[in-house]
């Protein structure tokens, strides 16, 4: 930092105004009459506030104006102000950080300088309200790669172990990556994240309150899943996910794994979302805490008999369904019986249900108290109608069944008549290509499909070994069997069709080759016609998620051979059963090659 800038900042630090207040820097002021001491920074449009610079400033002034006292820091932006905050978030003596209305950069960057690592964190509360955090996959991966070892040692959890309250409210990530580069960066980031996860889970021993509210559904699910799936929360009391437009609960909630990591959880707030039922709720019997699940102001219209069994099984725990648009239907007999059982001794936590209202099923408008709903009176008429319908069906079931069978026969006849030519064509194709019969011999025993980058292994290892093990085998290779002057695609198609098998040498090089993909598609088509045509030889470990759909489907459906298998050569030679000489034809008798040569 230039000397004149430091001098001017120190000059501003010395300026006092009013009682119990003092400037620190251009935009920040200290309030001494609040305990703990409060530092407030106002960042205006076009101004850039930086946590690193503020830390340098505080190192020179904190002793003079704050001593060893702790303080809270509030940053509020006006008119689109920008601030820079790098991880880890540390300032000497700072117990709380609140950021409002700011555009935040560098949040996924790291500063592991000795100066920062020497600071003992006392941060207890971290709150972001109405903020946008700039996010780039490429930049994030770059920072993780650069600081990977220090992340494993110091800050792989991102949230300080001293933190008690974490609030992310009405905020979002601002993605600045172009779509074509996004997927590449995402794979690299996933690799490093998985490496971090292999180490011990983050122990958030002091975290009591987590709030992620007023977010979009995607952001809320991603952030809470990342936090809960990678941490242990010995003191966590509240998870607040209100007003996130959730139609379903995040996958990390109400799972056995969650209850293994939360010992003292008392409340999960899912109010003001779009959840339609309570079937997702699961609380194990061995969970010792009293849990309150808040589902008020959702879109629950019915408590089914199955849901009611689950609700009763929760016993000492409570599910709050206030202010949901319940409909009084005849499918909730157990629910009405449950409300009748509620009194000062039984189910006291659900006393509020007696005063709740539901929409009348018939009028769809009128509201009535659920406790006044008479199942016997309102549903008797419905049950009698259902019984009458069942009696009519029972008396005439054989006539109805005969009518349905006649109707089905007429429908099948019409379809056969309409598509008779297509059915005949499919039958001819099916009967003509079932197998490689003696009257339909192949010129080669196997066509070897491979990437040019794997050429050396194919020639020096695969080809020579097969020749020694199967001296009578006829193998088709690019360099020696492709017809000169013919189109590459035509050569590929003819080689596949004129071979009993296609040996596909699968590697990372193969995946990147367009010609190899064409060879696979043709061989895959042959496999669909002839059950055992394509043999995949996996010569190295690859990520199956990088494969296209057909190749991934083939590997999941058919058996393939791994080069690392000790029985690789025995299995391969056993599969390549050599045809008799009468089943083979020479080049000169092959009509396809004759046509190509002409």
Automatic annotation (TrEMBL):
Signal peptide (UniProt feature, chain positions): 1-20
Cited Gene3D superfamilies: Ribonuclease Inhibitor, Toll/interleukin-1 receptor homology (TIR) domain
Membrane-traversing stretches: 398-417
UniProt keyword Translocase present: no
Record flagged with keyword Membrane: yes
Chief location: membrane
GO molecular function: signaling receptor activity
Record keywords: Membrane, Receptor, Signal, Transmembrane, Transmembrane helix
PANTHER family with a match to the protein in the record: PROTEIN TOLL-RELATED (PTHR24365:SF541), TOLL-LIKE RECEPTOR (PTHR24365)
Name recorded for this polypeptide: Toll-like receptor 4
């Amino acid at each position: 930092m230039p000397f004149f800038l430091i001098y001017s900042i120190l000059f501003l630090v010395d300026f006092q105004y009013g009682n119990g207040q003092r400037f620190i820097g251009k935009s920040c002021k200290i309030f001494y009459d609040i305990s703990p001491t409060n530092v407030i920074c106002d960042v205006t449009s076009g101004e850039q506030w930086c946590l690193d610079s503020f830390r340098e400033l505080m190192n020179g002034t904190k002793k003079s104006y704050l001593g060893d006292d702790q303080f809270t820091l509030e940053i509020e932006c006006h008119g689109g102000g920008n601030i820079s905050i790098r991880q880890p978030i540390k300032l000497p003596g700072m117990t709380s950080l609140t950021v409002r209305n700011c555009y935040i950069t560098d949040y996924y960057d790291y500063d592991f300088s000795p100066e920062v690592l020497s600071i003992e964190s006392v941060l207890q509360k971290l709150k972001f309200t109405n903020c946008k955090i700039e996010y780039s996959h490429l930049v994030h991966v770059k920072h993780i790669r650069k600081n990977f070892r220090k992340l494993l040692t110091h800050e792989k959890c991102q949230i300080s172990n001293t933190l008690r309250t974490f609030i992310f409210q009405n905020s979002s990530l601002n993605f600045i990556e172009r779509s074509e580069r996004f997927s590449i960066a995402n794979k690299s980031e996933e690799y490093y994240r998985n490496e971090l996860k292999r180490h011990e889970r983050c122990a958030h021993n002091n975290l009591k309150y987590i709030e992620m509210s007023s977010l979009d559904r995607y952001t809320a699910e991603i952030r809470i899943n990342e936090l809960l799936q990678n941490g242990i929360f010995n003191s966590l009391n509240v998870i607040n996910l209100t007003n996130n437009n959730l139609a379903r609960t995040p996958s990390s909630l109400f799972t056995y794994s969650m209850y293994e990591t939360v010992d003292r959880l008392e409340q999960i707030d899912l109010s003001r979302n779009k959840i339609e039922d309570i079937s997702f709720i699961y609380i194990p019997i061995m969970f010792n805490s009293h849990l309150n699940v808040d589902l008020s102001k959702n879109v629950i219209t019915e408590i089914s008999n199955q849901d009611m069994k689950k609700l009763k099984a929760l016993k000492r725990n409570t599910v709050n369904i206030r202010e949901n648009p319940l409909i009084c239907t005849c499918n909730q007999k157990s629910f009405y019986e449950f409300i009748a059982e509620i009194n000062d001794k039984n189910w006291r936590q659900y006393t509020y249900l007696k005063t709740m209202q539901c929409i009348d099923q018939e009028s769809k408008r009128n509201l009535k108290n659920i406790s006044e709903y008479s199942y016997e009176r309102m549903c008797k008429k419905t049950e009698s109608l259902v019984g009458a319908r069942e009696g009519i069906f029972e008396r005439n079931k054989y006539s109805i069944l005969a009518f349905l069978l006649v109707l089905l026969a007429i429908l099948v006849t019409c379809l056969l008549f309409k598509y008779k030519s297509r059915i005949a064509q499919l039958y001819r194709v099916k009967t003509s290509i079932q197998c490689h019969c003696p009257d339909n011999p192949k010129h080669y025993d196997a066509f070897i499909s491979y990437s040019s980058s794997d050429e050396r292994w194919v020639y020096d290892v695969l080809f020579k070994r097969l020749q020694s093990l199967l001296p009578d085998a006829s193998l088709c290779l690019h360099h020696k069997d492709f017809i000169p002057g013919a189109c590459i695609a035509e050569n590929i198609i003819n080689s596949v069709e004129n071979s009993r098998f296609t040996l596909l040498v699968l590697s990372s090089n193969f995946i990147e080759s367009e010609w190899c993909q064409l060879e696979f598609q043709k061989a895959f088509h042959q496999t669909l016609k002839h059950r055992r045509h394509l043999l995949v030889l996996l010569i190295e470990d690859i990520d199956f998620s990088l494969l296209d759909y057909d190749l991934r489907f083939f590997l999941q459906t058919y058996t393939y051979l791994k080069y690392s298998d000790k029985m690789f050569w025995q299995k391969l030679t056993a599969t390549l059963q050599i045809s008799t000489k009468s089943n083979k034809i020479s080049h000169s008798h092959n009509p396809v090659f004759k046509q190509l040569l002409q």
